[in-house]
Design a protein that fits this description.
Layout lengths: L1 H10 L4 H6 L10 H49 L10 E2 L6 E5 L4 E8 L6 E5 L4 E5 L2 E2 L6 E5 L5 E6 L8 E7 L5 E10 L4 E2 L4 E5 L4 E6 L10 E5 L2 E2 L8 E6 L4 E6 L8 E7 L5 E8 L1 H37 L15
Parallel strand pairs: 2-10, 12-19
Antiparallel strand pairs: 1-3, 3-8, 4-5, 4-9, 5-6, 7-8, 9-10, 11-13, 13-17, 14-15, 14-18, 16-17, 18-19
Helix pairs in contact: 1-3
C-alpha cells in the first residue's frame, strides 16, 4: 500500500542523466514526508480503534457474564417459588383455640385455620352423627343455626352456631379434602350461665342522687370473667358524661356500676353482660323530688292496704273460732215425784 510506495519513493535514487537534466531538484520524492505523516496518523488511529474495540468487547463480555449470572439466579429462585400451592400439602394452624365454651342461648364460633389450601375444600362435620354441616361457605343442614364464614384470601374457616342449645355440645371436625383426608377436632362445651343484677327489674332513682348497680356471674366458666355494662345499646363509659365508674373483679366474677348525681338523661335500660353468659337488665327511671315523695306515699298506701285487710281477716277468723269453741248451756230437767 502507501507505506511501500512511500519507501520506494523516498529511497529510490535517480540516474545521472535525470540529475543533469533537472538541475537543483531533490533526489528523493518531495511528497514522501507528508505521506509518512498521514500513514503514522492512520496507524495510530487504527491502533486506537483496535484498543477501543477490545475494551468494548471486554465490557460486553463482562455484562454478558453478569446478565447470565442474574438470569441463572432468577431461574433458581423461580424454581423455589411455585406458581401455586400445588407443591405443598395443606397444614393446620394449631394456634387456634380447640375447646370452646359457650353459654346457653349465645353464639359459638369455631375457628379453623388451614395453610396452603390450594384448590382443596374445608368442611365442618359433627362427629356424633357424622353429619356434614358445611362445605366451603355452603351449608348442608336444615338447621339454620349453623353457618359457614370465610374471608377471601384468608386461611380461616369459621363454623358459627347461633343460639347454642345443650344438644350442640360435643366434638366437631374441620376436614380438608386431601387424599387421604386430614381433620382437626374441636370441642364445644355448652354451659348454663346467666349474669344477674342484684336489684329490682325496675328502679326509681331521685334526680341528683347516685346509682350503684351490682352484677354477678357466679356460674360463668373459667377462672376469670370479663363483664361489660350497656345503657340501652351503647357501652357505658365516662368519656362523654363523666362521673361514671365501673369496678370489676374478674376473679370474683362481679362488677359494680356507679353513676354520680344522676340526671333525667340517665334514665334507660342498663344491661350487664359477662363472658359465656346470658345478660341481665334493669330499667332505671330518674324522677324529681316531688315525684319521689308521691311515689313513696303511694308505695306506702299499697303496703298498708294489704295489712288492714289481713287484720280484718284475722279478727273474723278469731271471732269464728271463739264461737265454735264456746261450751253449750246445760238444760236441767227436774222431775217432781207426786204421790199417787
Amino acid at each position: 500500500m502507501r507505506w511501500r510506495h512511500a519507501v520506494r519513493a523516498t529511497f529510490t535514487p535517480t540516474t545521472a542523466t535525470e540529475s543533469s537534466l533537472r538541475p537543483g531538484k531533490v533526489i528523493c520524492n518531495s511528497r514522501a514526508p507528508q505521506i509518512a505523516h498521514e500513514m503514522l496518523v492512520e496507524y495510530f488511529m487504527a491502533l486506537l480503534v483496535i484498543m477501543g474495540l477490545t475494551a468494548t468487547v471486554d465490557k460486553q463480555s463482562r455484562h454478558s457474564s453478569q446478565y447470565f449470572g442474574h438470569l441463572a439466579a432468577a431461574e433458581e429462585l423461580s424454581n423455589q417459588i411455585p406458581d401455586n400451592y400445588d407443591g405443598f400439602d395443606p397444614q393446620f394452624d394449631n394456634s387456634s383455640q380447640r375447646e370452646i365454651i359457650a353459654a346457653l342461648g349465645t353464639t359459638a364460633r369455631l375457628h379453623c385455620r388451614v395453610r396452603h389450601l390450594g384448590d382443596r375444600a374445608v368442611s365442618w362435620i359433627r362427629q356424633r352423627d357424622l353429619h356434614i354441616l358445611t362445605i366451603g361457605i355452603m351449608t348442608y343442614t336444615n338447621d339454620q343455626r349453623f353457618l359457614a364464614r370465610h374471608i377471601d384470601n384468608s386461611d380461616e374457616w369459621v363454623l358459627k352456631v347461633v343460639s347454642v342449645q345443650p344438644r350442640d355440645g360435643g366434638i366437631y371436625e374441620c376436614q380438608v379434602s386431601t387424599e387421604p383426608k386430614i381433620s382437626l377436632a374441636y370441642k364445644l362445651i355448652v354451659v348454663t350461665s346467666k349474669a344477674q343484677i342484684l336489684a329490682n327489674r325496675e328502679l326509681f332513682i331521685q334526680s341528683g342522687s347516685d346509682i350503684n348497680l351490682t352484677c354477678i356471674a357466679p356460674q360463668a366458666p373459667g377462672p376469670y370473667t370479663h363483664m361489660l355494662w350497656h345503657k340501652d345499646t351503647e357501652l357505658v363509659s365516662d368519656s362523654a358524661r363523666g362521673g361514671i365508674r365501673v369496678i370489676s373483679e374478674q376473679q370474683m366474677k362481679t362488677s359494680n356500676l356507679v353513676i354520680s348525681r344522676v340526671l333525667h338523661t340517665d334514665s334507660g335500660n342498663y344491661t350487664c353482660s359477662a363472658d359465656n353468659s346470658n345478660s341481665d337488665s334493669v330499667f332505671v327511671h330518674i324522677i324529681k323530688s316531688e315525684q319521689h315523695a308521691a311515689m313513696q306515699h303511694e308505695m306506702g298506701m299499697r303496703l298498708e292496704l294489704p295489712s288492714l285487710v289481713l287484720l280484718l281477716l284475722m279478727a273474723l277468723l278469731s271471732a269464728s273460732a271463739s264461737a265454735l269453741l264456746a261450751p253449750a248451756s246445760p238444760l236441767i230437767a227436774v222431775a217432781s215425784l207426786e204421790p199417787l
